[in-house]
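hey so i finaly got around to running the thing on Segregation and condensation protein A from Massilia aquatica. pasting the sequence first so u can double check i didnt mess up the copy paste, my clipboard has been acting weird all day
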Amino acid sequence: MLPEEAATEELATEPGGSLSDAPAAPVELPAVLEIPPETPAFARLYGEPLLRMPTDLFIPPDALEIFLDAFEGPLDLLLYLIRKQNFNILDIPMAQVTLQYLKYVDQIRLHNLELAAEYLLMAAMLIEIKSRMLLPQRVADDDLLDTYDPRADLVRRLLDYEQIKLAAYEINAIPQLDRDFTRPSLFVEQSNIPTWPDVDPLDLQRAWLDVLKRAKLTQHHRISRQELSVREHMTSILRQLQSARFVEFADLFQGKGGVPIVVVHFVAMLELAKETLIEITQAEPFAPIYVRLAYSPA
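ok and heres what it spat out for the C-alpha cells, dont ask me to read them lol
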C-alpha cells in the first residue's frame, strides 16, 4: 500500500469522516532525514554508534573541568616566581613574591583543598619572614647590629632544591630503555643453529690445573733399584785427589748423577777419612772446606 492510500484510509475510518471529506490532493508526509552510510560515527553510546549530534544534549558548565598541576610543590612554585621575574635569589623581594604566591594559593584552594595545605604552610612561612623583616633589628651587647637575615634558611632550601631539580633534568635526559629506545628482538629457530657454550680461557686454564692437581694426588711412587759400590767411589776420590794438592769439598761432587750417587759418594769420602787416607780441613767457621790426601811419612 502506498503512503497516499494509507492516509486516505485513515481519514475514512475516523468517526464522522467520509471519503468525500478527503482532500483532493495526496497528503505529503514529512521527509525522513537520510544519513549517508559512509558517515563515520563521532561517538558511541552503550556500544551503538552516534552519527549525528543529539539536539537535546545539555552539558552542565562544571561537568568537565581540567586542572593542570604545573608545579611539584611549594618550593617549585616559589622558585618559578623568582626565576620568572629575574629576582636575585640571595636578595628576594618578599612583598612581591608573597603577593604573587598567595594569588596562586587562592586558585588552588578552589580546586583541591588537600593540595593547598602544603602551599598554605609555605605561605605562612613567607608571611613570617616578611613580618620579621619589618621588625627593627636587634642591637647586640657590643653595639653591633645583628646581621642575621630571616631569608637565609629559605634561600638555602631554594638553592638545594634547584640543584636537585637540575640534576633530575640531566638524569631524565639520559636515554632510557622502553622510553627512548627498545632492544631489538629476533626469533631464531634453535633447532637448526648449534649453540656453543660461552667458555672463558681463564676458566679452561683453572680446570686444567685442577686436573693436574688431582693426577698428582693419585699417582704412585716408584722406587728404582740401583747397585752402587762404595769401594769404587773411594777409588774415584783418591784418583781425583792425586792430581791436586787441595780440592774443595763441593768440587768432589760435580758431575755426579742423582741423589743416590751423591749419597754413596759422600759415604765413600767418610770411609776414606775414617781410614785416615784423606784429611778434611777448614781454617775457620763458615770457611770453605778442603779435602786432601793424608800425609804419610816416607
